[in-house]
Amino acid sequence: MGEMMEMPELDAEGYLTDPSDWNETLAAELARQENIQLSDDHWDVIRFMREYYEEHQVIPDARFAIKHLAERLGKESRNKIFELFPYGYVKQACKIAGMRRPRAWSTG
């Protein structure tokens, strides 16, 4: 029997409905569903997002995550976030980091 982790409640698009349900095991599973192999750089962004969210109770805008990466990796990392999350910061990074879907950033 394969070990299935207990999935917390997700919305119709696969985002956590309660960010406090998040943990790193869940992040790895959500990443797997997005076909992302989590590297140290992915974890760096995800942990930054979680810490920012804990502190401010809002999801960090992509530019904050980009700035965070640039401080660690240097200016040439400006597009790194898009390499890490090729289908988009909101669609992948926010989902894997256990954020609710950011309504204000909806394209619909």
UniProtKB/TrEMBL annotation:
It comes from the Bacteria. SUPFAM superfamilies: DsrC, the gamma subunit of dissimilatory sulfite reductase. One of its GO terms (cellular component) is cytoplasm. The keyword Cytoplasm applies. One of its GO terms (molecular function) is sulfur carrier activity. Keywords: Cytoplasm. It is found in: Cytoplasm. Pfam families: DsrC (PF04358). The keyword Transmembrane helix does not apply. PANTHER family: SULFURTRANSFERASE TUSE. NCBIfam families: dsrC_tusE_dsvC. Belongs to the DsrC/TusE family. This is tRNA 2-thiouridine synthesizing protein E. It comes from Sulfurirhabdus autotrophica.
